[in-house]
Design brief:
By secondary structure, the chain is of the alpha/beta class. It contains five helices and 13 strands. The chain has helices at 15-23, 43-50, 76-82, 120-130, 158-166, and strands spanning 2-5, 29-32, 61-62, 94-98, 101-105, 136-140, 171-174, 180-183, 198-202, 219-223, 228-234, 238-245, 250-257. It has a seven-stranded mixed sheet, with helices on one face. It has a six-stranded mixed sheet with strand order 3-2-1-11-12-13, covered by helices on one side. Helix 4 runs parallel beside helix 5.
C-alpha cells in the first residue's frame, strides 16, 4: 500500500492536519510529491509546519523534493529532516521496492541535478529500470509532465517519461498543481494507449487549493478545491486507486492490471 499527496504543510494553513488524519488510518508507505514545507523549505518551517502533522508519519515516509523545499540552501533542511529516506543530499533521486512493485523517486528541480536526456539522473533512471525487468513499476516527482492545472504541462520532464514508457512503467505521480487529476494511460506524445503510463496529479496535501485552466487530452477525472490523499493498493498483477478527501469520502476510484501482470 502507498498513500500520499504533494504540496503539503504551511504554518498559515490547516489542510495538512486534515490530510494527515486520513493518512493515519491507512497502513503502508507514505509518499510525498514535493513542496513538503512552505514557503521556503527552511529548517524552522519543517520543524513548525511539517513535523506536527505529516511528520507523525516520518518513519514510513519516502519523499520527493519540490521547488519550495529546494528554495533554501538547495534543500539542505529537506535532506536533513528526511535523512537517508530522501536519497543522497544534493541528488534527491532514489528507488525502493513496495511489495511486488518497483518504485522510482526523481528530482524535478533540474537546476539542482539535470533532468535532460544523457544527464547523470536520466542515465541512473534508465539503469535502475533496466535492473528491474518484468516488474510492475511506478515513479513520482514534483512537476507534472501533463496537467490541466494552472502550471500546465512541463515538457522538461520528457526524458523521465520517455525512459519510463520504454521500460513499461505503469504509473507516474506528481504534485505542483494544487488539485487532483487522473489521466488515461498514454505515450510520451500524449496518445492514449493501453500500454502507456497513467499519471496522477495529487497536489492536495494541504497547500491552498485551486482549480483548472486548459483541460488536457486524456484527462479522465479532475477535482478542484479539495484536500485529500491518493491511496494505491498494489498487487503482483495490478493496482487499485482511491482518492479520499478530508471528509473521508472516496471521490475517485478504479483499478487496472499492470503491464507486467497483464
Amino acid at each position: 500500500m502507498l498513500v500520499g499527496a504533494g504540496d503539503i504543510a504551511s504554518c498559515a494553513l490547516t489542510g495538512d492536519a486534515s490530510t494527515e488524519a486520513i493518512l493515519a488510518t491507512i497502513p503502508g508507505t507514505v509518499f510525498t510529491l514535493g513542496d513538503n514545507a512552505y514557503e521556503s523549505g527552511t529548517a524552522d518551517e519543517f520543524a513548525r509546519c511539517y513535523a506536527p502533522t505529516w511528520g507523525r508519519e516520518l518513519a514510513r515516509t519516502r519523499p520527493a523534493i519540490g521547488n519550495h523545499d529546494a528554495a533554501t540552501a538547495k534543500g539542505a533542511a529537506y535532506f536533513a529532516f528526511f535523512g537517508a529516506a530522501a536519497g543522497e543530499p544534493g541528488r534527491g533521486y532514489y528507488s525502493y521496492d513496495a511489495g511486488a512493485w518497483h518504485v522510482v523517486v526523481l528530482n524535478s528541480e533540474c537546476w539542482m541535478t539535470a533532468c535532460s536526456a544523457g544527464s547523470e539522473q536520466e542515465r541512473w533512471l534508465r539503469a535502475d529500470l533496466a535492473a528491474h525487468p518484468g516488474r510492475c513499476m511506478l515513479a513520482y516527482w514534483h512537476h507534472p509532465y501533463w496537467s490541466s492545472g494552472p502550471h500546465g504541462n512541463d515538457a522538461t520532464m520528457r526524458p523521465f517519461v520517455d525512459a519510463l514508457y520504454a521500460a513499461g512503467a505503469d504509473l507516474i505521480l506528481n504534485g505542483h498543481d494544487h488539485d487532483y487529476e487522473r489521466f488515461a494511460p498514454q505515450d510520451p506524445d500524449g496518445n492514449a494507449t493501453a500500454r502507456g503510463v497513467r499519471e496522477f496529479v495529487v497536489g492536495t496535501g494541504g497547500a491552498s487549493p485551486y482549480g483548472f485552466a486548459i483541460v488536457r487530452p486524456n484527462s479522465e477525472k479532475r477535482i478542484a478545491n479539495v484536500f485529500g490523499v491518493l491511496k494505491l493498493t498494489l498487487s503482483s498483477s495490478g493496482y487499485a486507486w482511491s482518492f479520499i478527501d478530508t471528509a473521508g469520502t472516496t471521490r475517485d476510484e478504479g483499478s487496472s492490471p499492470c503491464h507486467a501482470g497483464a
